[in-house]
Design a protein that fits this description.
The protein has 155 residues and is of the alpha+beta class. The chain contains one helix and seven strands, in the order αβββββββ. The longest helix has 21 residues.
């Protein structure tokens, strides 16, 4: 980089223009590191799953879908923290079966979590979450301030 000057940060933080993308990147890195940390006695990839998420927006609501195969509604948690939704869950251990000798037992416990930034404010009191056929659907109505309004332009 001969002849180029690299500006150093003054420690005051990033401007609002750059703050959100870097915060999102930092959050994703934190989540990845949490997923990679192993608990004692667990094997690589066995301790937690990272479910894929679809987040769609309509005029009046946000709709989030994620696969949660085999989980019951009581094993799933949905929590709102500021402008984020945190989805987590843990599948209970299966009962040990008598008259069987297990040579490998990997399906006994599954857990997951995801934290997703929401693109707009929602009305948390009207959120509906339901599981059907292994898919969790969370419908989040937008707050009145987040809904778009059309303005007629006069000429």
């Amino acid at each position: 980089m001969a002849g180029k000057t690299v500006a150093r940060s003054s420690g005051r933080g990033l401007s609002p223009l750059f703050g959100r993308p870097f915060r999102s990147l930092r959050d994703e890195m934190d989540e990845m590191m949490n997923q990679l940390s192993l608990t004692p006695g667990s094997e690589w990839g066995n301790s937690a799953l990272v479910p894929s998420v679809d987040l769609a927006e309509t005029e009046n609501a946000l709709e989030l879908k994620t696969d949660v195969p085999g989980l019951k509604p009581e094993e799933i948690n949905v929590e709102f923290i500021g402008d984020r939704v945190r989805i987590s869950g843990e599948q209970s251990e299966e009962k040990e079966e008598k008259d069987k000798t297990f040579h490998r037992l990997e399906r006994s416990r599954r857990s997951f979590f995801r934290v997703i930034d929401l693109p707009c404010a929602i009305n948390q009191k009207e959120v509906v979450a339901e599981v059907k056929d292994g898919v969790l659907t969370i419908t989040m109505p937008k707050s009145e301030n987040a809904k778009s309004t059309r303005v007629t332009v006069k000429g």
